[in-house]
Amino acid sequence: MTEGVHQHSQHRRPHQPPMAAAFLEFDLDREIEQLQREPEWQKGQNARTLVKYHDFRIVLTTLKAHVRVPAHQTDGRVSINILRGHIQIRASGRTFDLPEGKLLALDRDVSHDLEALEDCVFLLTIARAVNDRSRLSRAST
Fold it and tell me: What's the CATH fold of domain 2-10+26-136?
């Protein structure tokens, strides 16, 4: 889903180092406030990759009410943890209702779309198998 959310965004924020270290700590309230002060939020969505290793990512994402993210998929396993608000995700012929406090996990290559039913914030985690790194290298050549 990271790719899905970010592929819609025509402009990506430069990653702020460090995004990979022995330990990383975040004040999520501060991160959310910053995302919601940026111009992208006024357009309906904003996101920041907090953690980025070759096989693991965590992305903090904000969506305004009624914003839809079209169907997409990723080659990693995904979890979506709703911190604030309410979204619906459609995947594999099902609709998952995710209010604040819910978490959904999807296996790799599961096509899904989502809609924010109200302003929302969620943590998107993507875990790729170690051998996915070679697949990513081949895809970029």
Answer: Jelly Rolls (2.60.120)
